[in-house]
Amino acid sequence: MVRAPATVVIPVWNAWELTRACLDSLGATLRPRDQVVVVDNGSHDGTAAGLRRYPWLEVITNSENRGFAPACNQGAAAARHDVVVFLNNDTVVPPRWLDGLLSPMADPTVVATGPRSNCVSGPQMLAVPYPPDSMAAMRRFSHEWCEEHRGLVSDVERLVGFCLAVRTQPFRAIGGFDEGYEVGGYEDEDLCVRLRAAGGRLVISHGSFVHHHGHATFDANGLSWRDQELSNRERYLAKFGADPEEVGTGAMVSACLIVKDEEESLPACLASLVGLADEVVVYDTGSTDSTIALARDAGAVVVEGYWDDDFGRARNDALAHCTGRWILWIDADEVVEGDIEGLRRRLAGPAQPEGYVVLIENEMGTGWNSRSVHPACRLFRRDVGRWTGHLHEQVCGPGGRLLALNPQEDVRILHHGYTDAMMSQRHKADRNLGLARAGVKKLDANGPPKGPAGREALAGALTNLGRTLFVAGAYSDSPAPYYEESLEHCRRGALLATNPTTRRLALRMGIEDLMGLGRLAEAAEWADRLRQASRKPVLADILTGRILLVEGDNAAALASFDRVGPRETDDDGFEYRAELIAPLRARALAALDRPGAAADVLLAALAAGACDVHVGTILDLLAKAGRGPDDLVAAVTPAVTRPVLAQVLQLAPEPADSLLETWWRRDPSDLAPLAAAARVALRLPLVRTLEWSARVRQKGLAGACPLLVVAADAARSPAERVRAAAVALGTFRDPRARTALAEALAHVPAAEQEATRAEVALLCPFLADDELLCA
């Protein structure tokens, strides 16, 4: 199909090398009747001379920079065709880009179209696999992408002006771009609002792709695009009363999830979003359990998608279905905790950043770092953010740049997906390892990395693979090969890294590998390198202390741990609190024969809700210090009651009984220790079983009476069951005890019947003439 001719308008302002690359790519894509108008906005470099080398251009020259909007209007005024395409000079166009861009215009209701791009805000953004400096790779990618998506369109409320096709007559009818926006920024949002108000449709043409460097002209002229954007935003708000991302939608926050077989975790996650998210979008990658039904029942928008080993792609597909101004990125094995109302007030305020940092508390299983805290961009504006990366994906802005983030302390995210049980159940380590290997292989296939960006990309992939190998090794019966391979990748990653964060992560993982391999001297050398690479050496102090602890230098280890304050943050935003390293400090103190001090460290951590040392260890330390369980019970808060009681049930009967007795006497109205004691009583001597049974019955819980449980337990000897039933019957006159007694007596061997019945008669004298004993 032969398309109609179009007018391409390119405003330029200095940055000739960018313009030249744009024109060189554009020339080969034009048809004979297409018109190209370049508006030179007062350039003082080689632009004017360079433009004369392209005889097919029509050039309009301004003596000074009039701004993006006036230049576009000048070019549109000179347009001879029904469609004008506004194109930034920091773009590179592949073959047939214009055909795909203009094809939706066959529908007369469509008034404007925009392509997909590597660097653009909003839903036009596309995560691309090619290096930003390889235009040959860009053209290969564009050909494959556009062939797969030819003819596909999506209706939107906003298109970005870096490449925007508009019907000429409607454009002129509404007065073109508003020239009140200085230099550039928000004039395209303004235009889109007015085009829609006039009844036109705006669509993304997925069969067109344009490479965009992004704000390069601003950079070349020494301007801050961000400052200019914020200034123009004020004009837009004064004119329309709302941010462009708020026009036409009532959703402020969209929670965005990708899931598969998450029926156990999903309900808690969705419950934590109530009051925070205006909508929840769940992208399912192939669940076979009740995940989809649970999500729909909770009111979520469910997208039945697919899985292709690409987390970034899946998240971006989910994002395409979100309508909120803000995107909260959360997984099914996470919950939001904190001041939800405070966060919503923050998000509704003026002059917002591009995103916010959220602290993630990871429950990691057992060990010193059983709960780690790290920062991440989990809340960002939908108009600027997109995910990049197949594994350990991150949110980036147009062109892959980092977003401008602000801190917030309103909420945190608690992540339990990396506990021992979850890792074993979900096989996350094996899955992630395959993705991490593929990421390195893809980058290594291109040969030695080119330039700082290429070096950093490979360093990040190598470090990511090293970290994934270490995790896989931790869950393997033979970890050494995993640690050896991880070490080599981390060594290479640390050498290649241009980003200090990547280098520090590579060093940290290398230290973990070396410790796992028992190579402590080398681990200490790497810890020194980490210290030198850090302005805030808190992690180096902790790792050095761990090495010294294994070496047996407990005093030096304790000194290293003591350098960590109550709450510190390292250079990369990871948080370390005193209670999180309490197990390490306690080990050093105990080894220095200071059991009381070791117990106090653990009790303080327990009171703060973050102690992962077993209560049996704390009880042992208290006993060595000549202290009882009272101090432990005093440190238990409601937040840790359930996990502490779960550990109490793992203790031997006598210490568990002693602890629960102390706990119950402290607050006899507390049913939690009483419920635990009812289970412990099943393993105690009959006298103590009776005492706990009486307490349980006083609370109206006769059905949970331990004596009745023992009496009905077919796994116990008939003699044990008879005694328990007789004591319950004799003490409480419970008819259920009589039934249990009759059943237990029926299982007593004939040779023991007479002696057993005599024992029952002593415990229950009122049964002397009862048929139960006379049988």
Description:
With 775 residues, the protein is α/β, with parallel strands linked by helices. It contains 34 helices and 21 strands. Strands 1, 2, 3, 4, 5, 6, 7, 8 and 9 form a 9-stranded mixed sheet that branches. An 8-stranded mixed sheet has the order 12-11-10-13-16-15-19-14, with helices on both faces. The longest helix has 24 residues, at 451-474. It is elongated, with a radius of gyration of 35 Å. The model is unreliable at 245-250, 364-370 and 419-426 (pLDDT under 50).
List the defining traits of the structure above:
775 residues, nine-stranded mixed sheet, elongated, eight-stranded mixed sheet, 47% helix, alpha/beta, 16% strand
How is the biggest beta sheet arranged? 9 strands, mixed
Radius of gyration computed on alpha carbons:
35 Å
Strand content: 15-25%
Q: How many DSSP H or I helices?
A: 34
Mean pLDDT across all amino acids: 87
Q: How helical, in percent, are the residues?
A: 40-55%
Low-pLDDT segments? 245-250, 364-370, 419-426
User: What overall geometry do the principal axes of the alpha carbons give?
Assistant: elongated
Structural class: alpha/beta
Number of strands: 21
Distance from N terminus to C terminus (CA atoms, Å) equals: 102 Å
